[in-house]
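Ticket #4471: structure output looks truncated?

Reporter: J.K.
Steps to reproduce: submitted the chain below (853 residues) through the standard prediction queue, then opened the result file.
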Amino acid sequence: MKPQELPVYQQKKRILDMLEQSQVIVVESPTGSGKTTQLPIILHEAGYSSHGMIGVTQPRRIAALSVSEFISKQLGTPMPGFVGYKMRFEDKTDSSTKIKIMTDGILLQEMKLDPWLSKYSVLMVDEAHERSLNIDFILGLLKRVLAERHDFKVIVSSATINTGLFSEYFDNCPVVSIDAITYPVTVIYDPPALPVSGGSLAAEEALMEKITQITSRILSDGRSGDILVFLPGERAIKNCIERLSAEPWYRKLYILPLYGRLGKEEQERVFDMPPFGKRKMIISTNIAETSVTINGITSVLDSGLAKLNFYNPHTFTSSLVEVPVSKASCNQRRGRAGRTREGTCYRLYERNDFEARPQYTTEEIYRTDLSEVVLRMAELGITDFDQFDFISSPGREGIIGAVETLNLLGALGPDRSLSKIGEMMCLFPLPPRQSRIIVEAVLQYPSVVEEVLIATAFLSAQSPFILPQGKEMEARKAHHGFRDSSGDFVSFLRIFRMHRMAKNRSKFCEISYLDERVMAEISNIKDQLEMIVSDMGIPILSGGSTDEYLSCISAGMVQFVCIRDGKDSFRSLTAERIQIHPGSCMYRENPQYIVAGEIVRTSRMYAMSVSPLTKAQVERIQPGLSQKLSGGYKASKTVDQRSDASLSTQRKGKKAGGKETQRDSGKAETEGVTFGGEFFALSRVKGKKELALPLEQFRNALKSVDTANSHTAQISGLRGKLILGSHELLAGEKMDLIIRIATTFDLAKADEKSWPRRENFVCAERPLELIDNLKWLFHVAVAKQKSKELGFICLFHDGNGTYWFKCSRGFHTALNETISSLEALIDELPGNLDDKSKNVVSDMYRKLNSFFA
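Returned output as attached by the reporter:
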């Protein structure tokens, strides 16, 4: 189809007429109408480029790149030139650029120096329906520009998702609807054997098996067209590709991953034609919902999942949660199969699951840290933060939490204007905590500026550590080689310098089990930050003390400075029961004080990227801080409960208006709960509802739930206990965890005489025998003689090569002790270990490590 034949041209005159009459218009259409690539050209041909640039914002790098290249090719101009793009690390614009495609973060950076966007005649905010925090902030800032510049025009471009909200926000501006050519899409509900939202390894394996089965069916049926699979994250995508590669028909496919962290060249491959005789199969996160248009897709396999971040402004902690996507997102995914011909969408969940989902995804502004937005407001001279005209108000709690963060960092003055520190922080395209680290080095510790830039680059990127399936043992052994007694932040320096010095960086990453793309990104970020510091007239010095280096880190991460509060547990100023994540080289170490790069809630609260601190260092960070930490955390249980409630809103499927949707199963009654066709007695224990779950009955219920795909979320807010004969297991634990454990482990009760309860194993003397006995891990056994309580068989070690098996009543104790022991065992096992033994250790490590994800 020629560009001029795209549906957007049917509305060309109406769009231009409306834009002439109004400063703002909303253009809505399904994917494929041509609005993203053709509206900038239509505006240019109408003369808008003669008195300023035509700007287009995109929420993702891949979209900015593909859109700019499409427009440049259509107009026959070089790039950079008349058409250009700009994103982090790349500026392909020049003085002749008139159509500029940019990521939304770049526009925010530009508005620091040019708050009224004087270089632009019109700005188009594309993919506005995604409602990212940047998009919402940009819309609010554009309102200010429109009030100041009556010659300025704005186009809000959106999929057909709640577009009336945009019109209402911009004083009931006109809405132009464009109908795209779409073809019928048959929807087939075909869930796997376990519910996709189960969160366990078994649930993921069942999902991979279902994707494999459907793909095999598509190939054997001889259906034409390419395949698009939606999965929640990068790890699931890699596991899926690995699973498919084991099939005999794998060579018939041209499989490509697609997620945000991929390099530019790899992302662009999804637009290529597959090699002759092969069918293209793209396995993607939600990036392929609307941001990119890939022609030729006729089959969509939708897991119905995505990973969303939830931030608690009271405890300053975040949670990356795998959640069911909204109905709107499901329908966007379905539409990808009907772009060029009739297609099929396989929904890997039941119809009643779809019907119970919220209409729209919870906007990012309600579930993210607002401190960077508030800092940018202050930079623009906006100090009445809670009065800013957001399209959806984040509420006072989010703003108050952001202001508190910035005050702790010293970024704001008493009148909420920027302090000197705040002004320097704004020079860096970083979240406030990270920019504060650099400012501390510049102002107080100039001899560690380079080290601080390296640390900040690591904090700005994803973790470079990879654990390939089946190679967990080798990977962790390689990672242990970077360990340092001064913690992860010093390990980062070692990794970075070894990578920089390596003659073959690709080989270095391969043998070190580091992600080559991430290491390249970290290197790029460090170089960019170095240029900014150099432009400030600051020399890039290095070689200062570790004490100075960690003092800089702590100045930015003051909210994540913690004091030890019992064995393996820490607390910060605002959160308690924090444990060091197993991925940290400080795991199972017990310094009195630590600083973390982040505190994340998964199954528990974990400190990530950890280094130890002394009391003297803590006092240097902030006088009196050690005393405040000793006094206990300030967040009340009520606050935590509010946080948990807000988090569960997305999980449980509440509608935008806050009313809980009705579900077909799992009705709670005063005396019990019927779940999966089975009735379970409900009682109150210490004021909390607890279900009694006879193990076999519970397993039957889960099987029934799996095939009928009832909603485990219906009981996930309760607590329970498993009943095995006259014994109890997991008493008082949350149902979410019990379900996950029951679908991950066999929970077979071990005979007391069959497992080595009181036997010591010296690894150097009996490595194979020790590995053989790992089969008993997480079987259940009587915790103590004559006790009603059962526990989990777990592995302990003394740090000197001796290991023993023990029964622990607490699941998390068993989990932590076993992971710690496996980490030690990996280092001590002989290098000539056979593959079968390596696989035993790797498989167990992978299974346990999934509980920390």
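Triage note (M.O.): checked the attachment and the full token line is present. Residues 370-426 form one domain.
Status: closed, working as intended.
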